[in-house]
Design brief:
Blueprint (H helix, E strand, L loop, with lengths): L2 H21 L12 E4 L7 E4 L4 E5 L4 E9 L2 E9 L16 E4 L3 E5 L5 E7 L2
Length: 125
């Protein structure tokens, strides 16, 4: 094969890869990233903060929590690494039951292991 032909084949492959990367989300809407801080307007102020290295931390208004997450489209699955478990009379610790999350542009919907909606958090502005 001549050098010119090898160069043309290489250029076609590179162009194809570039177009494939651009088209990976061509048919769908952009998916919001979970990275950032999300919080509640409740008095106890539950929150979650997701970093771009796959880790999260948060507080349910009483107990701290941390772990790892994976985002696949608008769905986020979490795995706890550490969590405080203490009783806090009068505080609804719903966030500590989280197992998965659906990400919207400005709202996270938090679900438990059975898929029941527990509550939502708003993106911190």
């Amino acid at each position: 094969m001549s050098r010119e032909r090898i160069w043309r084949v290489g250029a076609l492959i590179a162009a194809g890869l570039a177009l494939a990367g651009c088209a990976s989300n061509a048919g769908g809407a952009d998916v919001a990233s979970v990275v950032g801080k999300w919080q509640s307007s409740e008095d106890s102020e539950p929150y979650l903060t997701f970093s771009d290295d796959g880790k999260f931390r948060g507080n349910d208004g009483c107990n701290g929590m941390s772990g790892r997450y994976e985002q696949d489209g608008d769905t986020v699955s979490v795995t706890f690494v550490a969590a405080n478990v203490r009783g806090c009379p009068g505080v609804d610790t719903w966030l500590s039951k989280l197992k998965s999350i659906t990400v919207g542009e400005s709202t996270l919907e938090v679900y438990d292991a059975s898929g029941e909606l527990l509550g939502s958090l708003a993106r911190e502005s």
